[in-house]
Amino acid sequence: MSRIANQPVELPSGVEVTLNGQQINVKGGKGVLAHDIHQSVEVTQADNVLTFAARSKDKQANALAGTTRALVNNMVTGVSQGFERKMELVGVGYRAQAKGQILDLTLGLSHPVNYAIPQGITIETPSQTEILVRGVDKQLVGQVCAEIRAWRPPEPYKGKGIRFAGEHIVRKEAKKK
To answer: How confident is the model at residue 1 (pLDDT cuts 50, 70, 90)?
Structure first.
């Protein structure tokens, strides 16, 4: 039995959940999110608590119940508090600047990189070497960070590149003569 699915999701004040068959909609102060629930997972709502259970006793249904509980919990957290990831640019001449719905990156390439910010995500640049990605959808925030990082992942010799704040890069020793 999934231990994650056994834990109920408590709804904070200001968050509304509507169940329409196998569709769940979560509405809060920061936005609205929707998710389609698999047929083998049963969701019940009592007062301000959501509970998840597998409809059958097979292994996949238990796994899906735990996964669905985690996804819905992330949706509730997203619409009430939101998600935020901080990234750092390390390297001479590496800089970022947010201009409306475009993130302008200078990463030592022969051309500047213009990243189109998807809808539902806000990107701020407090300084030229910091990027702050915010949104209500945890998966979308992580995907945007991965796409930005893919332009210049940190390299192991000098440590240059785009990294997450607080990330430790394992450095390699340079070639010896």
So the answer is: low
Across 33-70, b (16+ Cβ under 10 Å) vs e yields beeebeebbebeeeeeebbbbbeeeeeebbbbbbbbbb
In a domain, 170, yes or no: no
Q: Look up residue 88 and give its amino acid.
A: E
Q: For residue 18, is pLDDT > 80?
A: yes
Task: Answer yes or no: is 169 within a domain.
Answer: no
Q: Is the pLDDT of residue 33 over 90?
A: yes
Cβ neighbours of 142 (radius 10 Å): 14
Interatomic CA distance for residues 108 and 161, integer angstroms: 10
What is the span of the domain harbouring residue 119? 83-164
Let me know: does 90 contact 51? Beta carbons within 8 Å: no
The residues, ordered by sequence, that sit 6+ positions from 154 with a Cβ below 8 Å of its Cβ are 90, 160, 161, 162, 163, 167, 169
Residue length, the chain? 177
Q: Structure tokens of 26?
A: 């979560």
Task: Please tell me whether residues 36 and 102 are part of one structural domain.
Answer: no
Please give the model's pTM, rounded to 2 decimal places: 0.89
| Final residue of a structural domain among 80, 105, 122 | 80
